[in-house]
Amino acid sequence: MSTLTTPRAEAGIRGWLKALTDRLTGIELAQAGKQLLLPMVGILIFVGFWHLAAPQVNTSLGTFPGPAQVWEQSGQLWQEHANQRERADKFVTMQEERNAGILADNPDAKVKIRGYPGAPTFPDQVVTSLITVLAGFVLATVIAVPLGIVFGLNHYFQAAVNPLIQIFKPVSPLAWLPLVTMVVSATYVSDDPMFEKSFLTSMITVTLCSLWPTLINTSVGVAAVNPDLLNVSRVLRLSFWTHVRKVVLPSSIPMIFTGLRVSLGIAWMVLIAAEMLAQSPGLGKFVWDEFQNGSSESLSRIMVAVLAIGFIGFLLDRIMLMIQKKVAWNE
Amino acid sequence: MTKPHLELTGVEMAFETPKGSFVALDNLNLKIRKGEFVSLIGHSGCGKSTVLNIVAGLLQATKGGCILDGHEINSPGPERAVVFQNHALMPWLTVYENVELAVQQVFRKTMARQERRDWIQHNLELVNMAHAANKRPGEISGGMAQRVGIARALAMKPSVLLMDEPFGALDALTRAQLQDSLMDIQQDLNNTVIMITHDVDEAVLLSDRIIMMTNGPAAAVGEDVHIDLQRPRNRVTLADDPVYVCYRQNVLRFLYEKQRKLESIAPRRVEKPAETSAGKSARLTAER
């Protein structure tokens, strides 16, 4: 690398660094170092270790991919996506032209508009996964928060339901999946379905596995409202709904959000497993298909998916944290 | 003396504990006139808070009852506003919104929007907290938060203002400041006030009447002293006023001679748990 850096570029970097250090005081520098430099160092060490260790691992599909191969494959996957897009655009324009032609001949003719039949690319799968996980997570929230409030408000309810929660909480998505699949196929019968069955199956599995942390945290948060505040509410004679809306809910928002963040993390983890097993479109299916495909590039492509899954999970958590900081009063 | 404004008759309060019934109050009788400032004083665990909670309606007496302006009290209500020891402001609402919550609830039907706004502002000004209207309770000091707690209670236009050791958690200087403010406000509004306190000086300085309670269990009214001191009162000049000193000694004598706590003699282990569990069950019942 050093041969590539020209003296001019080097001087530029030095000047930039000097300007930067001049601006920052010692403390700020230490802070910036902690926040930026150390993580960078950690990542670099990891990549270096990966680069050295990967070629040592031999599989039937060749050696384990190093960082370079994975980088190359991620470019490849993007290229495939771009190509696919182009073809899809062409397909649409062709179809429109043809339909326009038919309509010009016979204005009453029924024209068919077909979607592009090409296979979904990696970014398409990411988008599908995101939509599924968000749908499942939203459904879980819509169920868990009101239920948690009810359980938190009523001791008897809580005592009655607690064992059920404790039993269902540790159930793996893989155990739910066959049941959900069968129930969805049996009950969701429609000639013109609004959702794919596979989408519903993975979404419901995500919901079943991810609603527990939110449910538990909400009920704990609701049960732990400061007794003085409850007395204020009683002195003011707040109606039940006003009491829930103005005292109970805001008071438990921090706990609810902690639960929601854990839930979203679980939802994302569960989704990949569910998609893999259910063969429903998404990142999980991508991984499984690559595994079945078994080409020399498969492992690198799976590794791209692994990194993407991790990165998206991290981003989702950050987004939740941002929302929490906006909404919660104790942040 | 005309018909009493607030009357407690034969009040008994028993808490069910695993070790059996714990009688906190036994046959407590008390009559309070309109506009009177009454302090309840006594050793901790003597049931002062229980009396206050019964008047507030947060607890139900097991025997006897409490009548305010001819109506029996059996549930909490804004006409008996409570100032809690630890301000009990909603931490997610601003100072203004905390008072607004109360005003909205009590005067939703009787005041127009602008009128309510002025009323909230007026009460904040009364306790000198208008400047912090947009701050959250976490951003102001304990003394300031307690002022807002008082403003919230006053904003309900209560016929009785109940204060549960309102200044107990504050440092001495802040406490003195708040006592002076409370005296000024009381001078203007002439509210009926029942205040619980541990502080002998506070009781004598603020009250028209001091109710000294006997030690629990089965506590009742021990002595009832009228404080005939000219208002406005000034803590500095009163400090060596012989009448003031006499009242003060009166209370001290009651607390430390007649009702001296025997805690140091009786083995602590036996007495304490009974008290705390009773206190806890009081809390729990209050929560429901």
From TrEMBL, chain A:
<keyword id="KW-1133">Transmembrane helix</keyword>
<feature type="transmembrane region" description="Helical">
    <location>
        <begin position="36"/>
        <end position="53"/>
    </location>
</feature>
<feature type="transmembrane region" description="Helical">
    <location>
        <begin position="298"/>
        <end position="316"/>
    </location>
</feature>
<keyword id="KW-0472">Membrane</keyword>
<feature type="transmembrane region" description="Helical">
    <location>
        <begin position="202"/>
        <end position="226"/>
    </location>
</feature>
<dbReference type="GO" id="GO:0005886">
    <property type="term" value="C:plasma membrane"/>
</dbReference>
<protein>
    <recommendedName>
        <fullName>ABC transmembrane type-1 domain-containing protein</fullName>
    </recommendedName>
</protein>
<feature type="domain" description="ABC transmembrane type-1">
    <location>
        <begin position="126"/>
        <end position="320"/>
    </location>
</feature>
<feature type="transmembrane region" description="Helical">
    <location>
        <begin position="247"/>
        <end position="278"/>
    </location>
</feature>
<keyword id="KW-1003">Cell membrane</keyword>
<keyword id="KW-0813">Transport</keyword>
<dbReference type="GO" id="GO:0055085">
    <property type="term" value="P:transmembrane transport"/>
</dbReference>
<dbReference type="Pfam" id="PF00528">
    <property type="entry name" value="BPD_transp_1"/>
</dbReference>
<dbReference type="InterPro" id="IPR000515">
    <property type="entry name" value="MetI-like"/>
</dbReference>
<keyword id="KW-0812">Transmembrane</keyword>
<feature type="transmembrane region" description="Helical">
    <location>
        <begin position="174"/>
        <end position="190"/>
    </location>
</feature>
<feature type="transmembrane region" description="Helical">
    <location>
        <begin position="130"/>
        <end position="153"/>
    </location>
</feature>
<dbReference type="InterPro" id="IPR035906">
    <property type="entry name" value="MetI-like_sf"/>
</dbReference>
From TrEMBL, chain B:
<dbReference type="GO" id="GO:0016887">
    <property type="term" value="F:ATP hydrolysis activity"/>
</dbReference>
<dbReference type="InterPro" id="IPR003593">
    <property type="entry name" value="AAA+_ATPase"/>
</dbReference>
<keyword id="KW-0472">Membrane</keyword>
<dbReference type="InterPro" id="IPR050166">
    <property type="entry name" value="ABC_transporter_ATP-bind"/>
</dbReference>
<keyword id="KW-0813">Transport</keyword>
<protein>
    <recommendedName>
        <fullName>ABC transporter domain-containing protein</fullName>
    </recommendedName>
</protein>
<feature type="domain" description="ABC transporter">
    <location>
        <begin position="6"/>
        <end position="240"/>
    </location>
</feature>
<feature type="region of interest" description="Disordered">
    <location>
        <begin position="268"/>
        <end position="288"/>
    </location>
</feature>
<keyword id="KW-0067">ATP-binding</keyword>
<dbReference type="InterPro" id="IPR027417">
    <property type="entry name" value="P-loop_NTPase"/>
</dbReference>
<keyword id="KW-0547">Nucleotide-binding</keyword>
<dbReference type="InterPro" id="IPR003439">
    <property type="entry name" value="ABC_transporter-like_ATP-bd"/>
</dbReference>
<dbReference type="GO" id="GO:0005886">
    <property type="term" value="C:plasma membrane"/>
</dbReference>
<dbReference type="GO" id="GO:0015112">
    <property type="term" value="F:nitrate transmembrane transporter activity"/>
</dbReference>
<dbReference type="GO" id="GO:0005524">
    <property type="term" value="F:ATP binding"/>
</dbReference>
<keyword id="KW-1003">Cell membrane</keyword>
<dbReference type="Pfam" id="PF00005">
    <property type="entry name" value="ABC_tran"/>
</dbReference>
<dbReference type="InterPro" id="IPR017871">
    <property type="entry name" value="ABC_transporter-like_CS"/>
</dbReference>
<dbReference type="InterPro" id="IPR005890">
    <property type="entry name" value="NO3_transporter_ATP-bd-like"/>
</dbReference>
